[in-house]
Amino acid sequence: MPHVVLTGSVAMEELFRALRPIMIRKDQDILRTMDAFMNVGKTSILIESLAVEAGRKTSFLTLVSSRDDGVVVRLYPRLEVEKTEGVKMILAEQAKQILASLPALSTGETNLSSYLE
What we know:
The protein is an alpha+beta fold. It has a single domain (3-111), classed as TATA-Binding Protein (2-Layer Sandwich). The chain is built from two helices and seven strands; from the N terminus they run E-H-E-E-E-E-E-H-E. It has helices at residues 12-18, 85-101; strands at 3-7, 23-26, 29-38, 44-53, 56-67, 70-75, 106-110. A seven-stranded antiparallel β-sheet has the order 2-3-4-5-6-1-7. A hairpin with a 5-residue loop joins strand 3 (29-38) and strand 4. It is globular, with a radius of gyration of 13 Å.
């Protein structure tokens, strides 16, 4: 499962306020995120995401969830999503946006390192 762990101390409310929609257009491909929602316990955030690649749409939810050593950015596990290049790019772009907004965090374990450059 594609994921990026961001290590460090962060308040999920602060992270939620820092999120901005992502919109990337490359030729005919579109990668974007829309609305974000935080759960009542303030432990996870769901982000509506869309990848349009070669005319094929993939709608999915990006999950940002807290853990003892920071947060993890990954696909919402209860939905079956094809892990296309666009899907991986959205997850990586979301992680980069969080890192840029909250410099106290750093990149930890990930299988998307080539997308984070």
